[in-house]
Amino acid sequence: MASLVGKKAPHFSAKAVQKDRVIENFSLENYLGHYVIFFFYPLDFTFVCPTELHAFQSKLHEFEKRNARVVACSIDSHFSHFAWLSTPKKQGGILGVEYPIVSDIQKSIAKDYGVLCQDEGIAYRGVFLIDKQGIVRHQTINDLPIGRSIEEELRSLEALIFFERNGEVCPADWREGEKGMKPSFDGVKDFFSNE
User: Which residues are catalytic?
Assistant: First the structure.
């Protein structure tokens, strides 16, 4: 699988469900001018997946205040998404999730983003940070049993915003509010000399 980092996010137009409505021709192009956190999960009505969708929902305000939109995608039908969105959390559902969930019933979106698990016919746990111009700036892909860290996705978004605003790069384990460093040998020396 080739990395999409630095490339235009693959285009798609598909059905999506958001809250109690179906969006017929949903496309990420509608979010140009915003950052996008586009994530794939294996299947509706499963085990790790609802924990992730609720975790993204719990941080939705944090993403939105940074001008980012969260969008989920799986190979389920929009009917399945709608049913899962109508199922209470205590019953394994995702009632209360507010961001769009794309239906990739043909599996073409997962394939284009390089996250289709061919043996299972479902998507790995891929997440893509797409900038305001539609370019993929960060991606991670977890195997099916490994839930992802929503905090890390938020941190990556903050790092991208910091770089765009300041022109400085973010060292290992950088957090919002911390210093960056100049992308030069002198910048590295200054960074380590201030430890």
Answer: 49
Query: Which is nearest to 24 in space by CA: 13, 40, 35?
Result: 13
Domain residues for the domain of 73 are 1-147
Are 121 and 36 members of one domain?
yes
CA distance 177 to 180: 9
DSSP secondary structure of the chain: ----TTSBPPP--EEEEETTEEEEEE-GGGGTTSEEEEEE-S-TT-SHHHHHHHHHHHTHHHHHTTTEEEEEEESS-HHHHHHHHTS-GGGT--TT--S-EEE-TTSHHHHHTT-EETTTTEE-EEEEEE-TTSBEEEEEEE-TT----HHHHHHHHHHHHHHHHH--B--TT--TTS--B-SSHHHHHHHHHT-
Question: pLDDT tens-digit profile of 133-189?
Answer: 999 999 999 999 999 999 999 999 999 999 999 999 999 999 999 999 999 999 999
State residue 1's pLDDT score: 62
> Would you give the distance in Å from CA 147 to the centre of its chain?
13
Q: Does one domain contain both 82 and 159?
A: no
Evaluate if pTM is beyond 0.90. Answer: yes
Could you tell me if 86 and 42 lie in one domain? yes
Answer yes or no: do 124 and 189 share one domain: no
User: Do β-strands 35-40 and 68-74 pair in parallel, antiparallel, or remain unpaired?
Assistant: parallel
